[in-house]
Design brief:
The complex is a heterodimer of chains A (103) and B (739). Chain A is an alpha+beta fold and 103 residues long. Helices cover 32% and strands 31% of the residues of chain A. Chain A is built from three helices and six strands; from the N terminus they run αββαβββαβ. In chain A, β4 and β5 form a beta hairpin. Chain A is globular and about 30 Å long. Chain B is 65% helix and 6% strand. Chain B has 32 helices and nine strands. The radius of gyration of chain B is 32 Å and the shape is elongated. Classes of the chains: A alpha+beta (103), B alpha/beta (739). β5 of chain A pairs antiparallel with β9 of chain B, so a sheet runs across the interface.
């Protein structure tokens, strides 16, 4: 492994740690739900992915403009999202298709 | 009052309390679990209210009436095909916004509706006050507050439902506005549908129009079948609208429809229907617990600790009652031995019934403790969290998050059953993920395998029973996942599908609920032991008894006995006859004579078992099975296990009691196996591995064939599992013996 590659990998890891540790202090960060690694309120900006997934999400209340609460963020993995009074568990594939903004 | 039976349907979101209400109304004991997807098919029950006969159907939990999942299809099909006189929509009062989403679709469909506002006590605890009268006024349907768990309000609910059921009015759909642009399209589609009587026998025209806009997976092919010309016309209009919305707003019509439905619900709730005492944004205790119990690092550690505690609790608390049950069957055997004369009846009762069925029933206390522990996890809502945490691992092995529940139901936490596990795979929509789940759930340690595990672990690894049980459970998971990966990388290759599940809130299980669940499952076990297992035990006893030894061999053994007896003096022979087997009173010479006679009896008993039908099959297989360390008697038990896994223990009991003469001794089967020269700890592990992974029982095989839609997969499951289990056992035995 070259020094450049190592630096790149460490940099990526450091970014993740930074996000997790200081995420609460960085409002208005927009990105996929799967990469939001701090708890708290988020605003759903967009739901991407295939039509069926978008429709299913909409029926569960996960749609653009809706506010939700991220209960259990797990970087690059599944997560728990509280929306319309219910707690949804979303897998990585689904949560990576939900673009949110920290509130 | 009209006494002809009224048909009612119970519908609502998962975990809203449908099955609890169904059980309360009908007195049935359908299984209720605090996790979504417990009811995949609909169940029917009957009851009377003020001399009115009622037929009620418990429908699966759904969030909508659009065909996203099998539950939604089952619910919608039932409503259109059976047209119940009244639908009781059970909604969770503590989570009204989400629950009323389904209600709006019932209203759009026009079904005669009564809303059961359930869990008002939970809502009250959370500071939520719901004004039922106001909600009733705004929705235009009766709303009755109830607590399904205690039965509060259910009389009034049924009274209202009967009134609606007798009203004989036509289904009256309501119109919800989806915004100016979509409304115009819906009206246009509605007119085409109404003019051509397109699917109007099953659905209101507007409902069909909305489903076309939602691109409903079931409605589109149904329309093609009804009238392909009209269907094409509708599809063209909808495609134009969808493309336009996607280009201008970057959304599909279904998102706009869902948004307006939630808007409709919010508008109703804000008109004084719901008032909150506390801050609406606050996290409830359930969410706070989730922050810890589903934490990426802490969650799995807590999960393993909880499962290990479950085993520790089961083994330590059940030790005494299991020993007492063992002693009871030992005593029963000796009573029958004393009371009955020698002959086939005595042999059948002792070797077939008491050793066979008693061997299975002896584990009832342990099974009860295990089921109680599982009921606590299930009713509290923790099992749903286990599914959530396991999803990440399942992905790696090519399975779906919805596969977790079938695994758990099948015995993921030892003690389930593969049959409901196989049926629970219906919740998976991807055929390949479903098939991979279907074929691997039988690897779990079902309730029938548990006694075998307990017997062999207890006999050969008695110092660390809970630990070994825990390790064998983990092994079952590991093997199932590895095989799933193998299948998904070869014959069942395909894309992964998304997994979304609503987690139920944590709830304190009620003692009544826990006792009902525990008893229901234990009773199933006892019933099986008293019927199927009893029948198979007697059949196997017959196979192990007949044909008996030829007369020449019997004469030869008799001659041997006479020769041995005559080699001792008359006094010794008399001492033996008068002692009535009380060894303590015998002289040294008499003891020697008795020992030699016992050896001859054992030889005769062994020869008889070898000569029996089952013995011959076992001996025939021995050259191959010995590679894995199984002797011919173990082969007989394993063959019996193809019928039902419980039979393994009863057959081992019968085979090892027939091999020995002293059946009334208080030795347990475990002690007999430990004493047997063909058994040791390596053989025990090899046998355990074979039993855990070989062909599923007969009922499961039939179920796999039914669910897979072909016998090909059922035969594959039998052949593949047996081959895999045998290879694993051979490897364990050969490596273990070498080491």
């Amino acid at each position: 492994m070259t020094l450049k590659n190592l630096n790149k990998k460490c940099g990526c890891f450091a970014k993740k740690v930074r996000q997790c540790t200081f995420g609460k202090n960085c409002p208005n960060v927009t990105g996929p739900l799967s990469e939001t690694c701090h708890t708290g309120k988020v605003k759903i900006c967009k739901v991407t992915g295939d039509r069926k997934l978008c429709a299913r999400m909409a029926s569960l209340g996960v749609m653009p403009g809706q506010e939700a609460e991220l209960i259990c963020p797990q970087n690059n993995s599944q997560c728990l999202l509280k929306v319309h009074g219910g707690t949804l568990s979303l897998d990585q594939l689904t949560s990576s298709n939900i673009i949110v903004q920290s509130v | 009052m009209n006494n002809s039976s009224i048909t009612m349907a119970l519908a609502g979101n998962p975990n809203a309390g449908k099955t609890t209400l169904f059980n309360r109304l009908t007195g049935a004991r359908q299984h209720v679990g605090n996790y979504p997807g417990i009811t995949v098919d609909h169940k029917e029950g009957y009851f009377s209210h003020n001399e009115q006969d009622i037929t009620i159907t418990d429908l699966p939990g759904t969030y909508s009436l659009t065909a996203y999942s099998v539950e939604e299809i089952v619910t919608r099909d039932f409503l259109t095909a059976n047209k119940p006189k009244v639908v009781i929509n059970i909604v969770d009062a503590s989570n009204l916004e989400r629950n009323l989403y389904l209600t709006t679709q019932f209203l759009e469909m026009g079904v005669p509706l009564v809303i059961a506002l359930n869990m008002i006590d939970v809502a009250k605890d959370r500071g939520i006050e719901v004004r039922a009268r106001k909600l009733e006024e705004l929705l235009g349907v009766p709303v009755v507050p109830i607590i399904a768990r205690t039965g509060e309000g259910t009389d009034e609910l049924i009274r209202q439902a009967i009134i609606v059921g007798h009203s004989e009015e036509k289904w009256q759909p309501i119109d919800i506005s989806y915004g100016e642009d979509l409304d115009k399209i819906i009206i246009h589609l509605d007119s085409i549908i109404a003019e051509s009587d397109f699917l109007t026998n099953s659905y209101p025209a507007r409902f069909t129009a909305i489903k076309y806009l939602e691109h409903d997976d079931q409605m589109l092919p149904l329309g093609q079948k009804e009238d392909s010309g009209i269907a094409r016309q509708l599809e063209q209009i909808v495609t134009t609208v969808s493309d336009h919305l996607l280009k201008t707003m970057d959304v599909y019509p279904e998102a706009i429809i869902a948004d307006h439905r939630y808007g409709f619900i919010k508008a109703i709730l804000r008109q004084g229907v719901v008032t909150h005492k506390f801050d609406t944004d606050r996290l409830y205790t359930s969410d706070k617990i989730d922050k810890v119990l589903t934490n990426r690092l802490l969650g799995p550690v807590v999960m393993l600790a909880i499962l290990f505690t479950l085993y520790q609790f089961t083994f330590s608390w059940s030790e005494l009652p299991v020993a007492l049950m063992g002693s009871f069957f030992g005593w029963l055997g000796s009573v029958v031995d004393t009371l009955l004369p020698e002959g086939p009846l005595k042999s059948m009762l002792i070797s077939g019934v008491i050793d066979g069925v008693g061997g299975v029933l002896g584990f009832v206390p342990l099974i009860m403790f295990m089921f109680f522990g599982i009921a606590v996890l299930e009713d509290s809502g923790y099992l749903a969290r286990v599914a959530f945490m396991m999803d990440r691992i399942f992905r790696i092995f090519g399975l779906h998050g919805s596969s977790v529940m079938p695994f758990i139901v099948s015995g993921g936490i030892a003690g389930g059953c593969a049959v409901p596990g196989v049926m629970a795979t219906r919740t998976l929509r991807s055929p390949k993920e479903r098939m991979a789940t279907l074929l691997t759930v039988p690897f779990m340690n079902c309730g029938a395998k548990v006694p075998v595990l307990i017997l062999l672990i207890g006999a050969f690894f008695s110092d660390h029973k809970a630990l070994y049980m825990f390790l064998f459970t983990l092994l079952a998971w590991l093997v199932a996942l590895v095989v799933a990966k193998l299948l998904r990388s070869t014959v069942l290759k395909g894309e992964a599908t998304p997994f979304v599940m609503e987690l139920p809130p944590y709830r304190f299980p009620t003692l009544q609920g826990l006792l009902i669940h525990t008893w229901e499952r234990t009773w199933q076990y006892i019933k099986k032991a008293g019927t199927v297992i009893l029948a198979i035990s007697i059949l196997l006893w017959a196979l192990m008894t007949y044909p008996g030894l030829p007369q020449e061999e019997l004469d030869s053994f008799a001659e041997k006995r006479i020769a041995v007896t005559e080699s001792f003096s008359e006094t010794i022979q008399l001492e033996i006859r008068e002692s009535d087997n009380h060894n303590g009173d015998l002289s040294e010479s008499a003891l020697a004579l008795q020992e030699r006679l016992t050896t001859i009896d054992q030889e005769q008993s062994g020869a008889r078992l070898r000569n029996s039908t089952a013995g011959r099959i076992g001996i025939f297989l021995e050259p191959v099975s010995s590679l894995a360390g199984f002797d011919w008697r173990t082969n007989i038990a394993l063959l019996g296990g193809f019928a039902a896994k419980e039979v393994i223990i009863s057959t081992l009991g019968t085979a090892y009691s027939m091999g020995e003469v002293d059946v009334d001794a208080s030795d347990s089967l475990g002690q007999r196996l430990v004493r047997d020269p063909n058994w040791n700890s390596v053989v025990a592990i090899s046998v355990l591995i074979f039993i855990m992974f070989y062909a599923p029982c007969f009922v499961t095989v039939i179920c796999i064939a039914k669910e897979a839609g072909s016998w090909k997969w059922a035969f594959f499951s039998m052949a593949f599992n047996t081959f895999f289990a045998f290879l694993a056992s051979v490897a364990v035995f050969q490596i273990g013996s070498f080491v």
